[in-house]
Amino acid sequence: MIKKRRVFSGTRPTGHLHLGNYFGAIKGYLKLQDEKNLDCIYAIVDLHGVTSPYNPKTYPKEVTDLVLDYLACGLDPKKSHLIIQSHLPQHLELAYYLSTIYPVSRLEQLPTYKEKKLEQPKYINLGLLYYPILMAADILIYKAELVPVGKDQLPHLELTREVARMFNNYFGKTFPEPQAFLTSGSYVPSLTGEGKMSKTNENSYISLIDDLDTIKKKLAKVPTDLGHGNKVPQQGGINALLTLVELFMGKLKREQYEKQYLTTGIKYQPLKNELAQYIYNYLKPIQAKRAYYQKHPQLIKEIIENGERYALGIVQKTLLEVKRKMGFR
């Protein structure tokens, strides 16, 4: 019997998934579940979500919405396991044990912590500082060997590897040092023409649940120029549109529009309308699948319970090993 390598990935419930999430990460995650030598665990990391301002009245729905998005995109409960982080308190217990060996000074130096302090100056809590330790616990409690990440997340993973090394040095070999599995997903630029699609800017993205009219309105706001020039822009709104054209209509179509830009000129309104239709047609099956699960809440409950039942066997075993090595058993 082939020993499977474990994969772990978590997503915060901070709004619906958008095209950037889907092409940049989710498609890669779902491809992993088809690899027979991998054991994939995907989590809604709701404990991480409350380190930023949130509404406790709507939070349960946001968690459910993310579960629906995952299932709609193609997560197959027969091939991978879906869990909700807060349902398994063992994550928090391991995080505490790990926090006793990791220096506070290192956490305070992390760029992400400094950025969050600036981003939410009235909501600087201990959870923000503790965030990387809990993230390390999320990964290490499953002894995950692979963590699918983008290049911008590599520093986070390196901290987890450092925590694993420190624990192993103090208490004996326990955790593997997880390796980055760089997702080969496409970079999806922001509709504003600056950076990539992000949940932090509602004007920057197209959500997986957007209808045709909403998509048209969002694309209509993408900044453009006169439609012609002697060089095709490699950034800004025009590049964003052409990138979406390539993703949804193909590379040949992008080349045709680039040729128009350099010769007769592009008429942006027809381009945007046609692109909107292609995007909506692509999203329709995802939205239909989401609607199906939405009508069958009992099925969602069973999927989560099955995933967490599987995960519980792993986390209990890891915690028992950790407690014995640390002198608690």
Radius of gyration: 22 Å
Query: What is the number of domains?
Result: 2
Order of SSEs? EHEHHEHHHHEHEHHHHH
CATH superfamily of the largest domain: HUPs
How much helix, percentage-wise, in residues?
Answer: 55-70%
CATH architecture of the largest domain: 3-Layer(aba) Sandwich
CATH topology of the largest domain: Rossmann fold
Relative strand content: 5-15%
Give, in spatial order, the strands making up the sheet with the most strands: 1-2-3
First-last Cα distance? 32 Å
What CATH first level of the largest domain would be assigned? Alpha Beta
Oligomer: single chain
- The 3D shape can be described as globular
Could you give the count of β-strands? 5
Largest sheet: 3 strands, parallel
Name the poorly predicted regions: none
Mean pLDDT: 93
Description:
The chain has 329 residues and is mainly alpha-helical. It has two domains: 5-187 and 297-326, Rossmann fold, CATH 3.40.50; 212-290, no CATH class. The chain contains 13 helices and five strands. The chain has helices at 19-32, 46-49, 59-73, 90-99, 104-108, 111-119, 126-140, 154-171, 212-220, 236-249, 251-262, 268-294, 297-326; strands at residues 5-11, 38-44, 80-84, 146-149, 179-182. Strands 1-2-3 form a three-stranded parallel sheet. It has a two-stranded parallel ribbon with strand order 4-5. Strand 1 (5-11), helix 1 and strand 2 form a beta-alpha-beta unit.
